[in-house]
Amino acid sequence: MIPFDLLTEIANYNRIACLLAVPELVTCEKYGEREDHREFLDCILSLKEPEKKIATQNELFRIGIEKMHEEVHKFSLFYIIHNSESTVGNTVKMLEEHFGSSGEDAAKTL
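Above: the chain sequence. Below: its structure as tokens.
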């Protein structure tokens, strides 16, 4: 990930979109649901006391998300927060509006 201070130096505001999540959606369990992240969860579950590591990791995820939200607000960047009601279609629509284009034009300008 590019640090936000550097990102704001190398790109214009209208060319930046931050996709954030609510902390409740970023947990070991949810992270491990993705096939490309399954090894991470399997490793944790193989430990002697996986519940403790899961609790610690969930707290680290929460802290990371909180820090990310703070940085986005600090630099006044455009953002979309993913929550349990989010849809791909709605996210794409918001991105198209932010970037000022749609459909194939959006792919060409991104």
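The helical segments are 4-10, 28-33, 38-45, 50-74, 88-99, 103-109.
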